[in-house]
Amino acid sequence: QAQLVESGGGLVQPGGSLRLSCSASGFTLDRYVIGWFRQAPGKEREDVGCISADGSSTRVDGSVTGRFTMFRDNAKNTVYLQMDSLKPEDTGVYSCAAVLGDYGPWCPETYKYAYWGQGTQVTVSS
Fold first, then answer.
1. Which residues contact 9 (CB under 8 A, 6 or more apart)?
2. Do 68 and 81 form a contact (C-beta atoms < 8 A)?
3. Measured between alpha carbons, how far is 124 from 88 in angstroms, rounded to an integer?
4. What is the pLDDT of residues 24-83, one digit of tens each?
5. Three state DSSP letters for 8-60
6. Beta carbons of 81 and 20 less than 8 angstroms apart
């Protein structure tokens, strides 16, 4: 059964860092665009960004630009979200999703993602 599993969340102080992992089982990620999303309490889910299947193109959105980066190790069937200079407003549940294909430098529309993980909680607080 194909599934995605996120890990690496936790409690961190403002200004700290976390690295989230998105691992796949039941399929290989090397032909999939991986998107990251987050949902804060009481708010709608928002895009964090995405990384192309070969890792050559990444795109991060909005307030995380310059603080969050993505990379992948297809040999380990895992994609990573490196989060630095974390702020309290980064608190939320972070999820990854996968879609087959090549979207160039752009992220696919959310509805196109075929596989979703359950999410991992990130809490930024002193």
1. 18, 20, 94, 120, 121, 122, 123
2. yes
3. 5
4. 999 999 999 999 999 999 999 999 999 999 999 899 988 899 999 999 998 999 999 999
5. CCEEECCCCCEEEEEEEECCCHHHEEEEEEEECCCCCCEEEEEECCCCCCEEE
6. yes
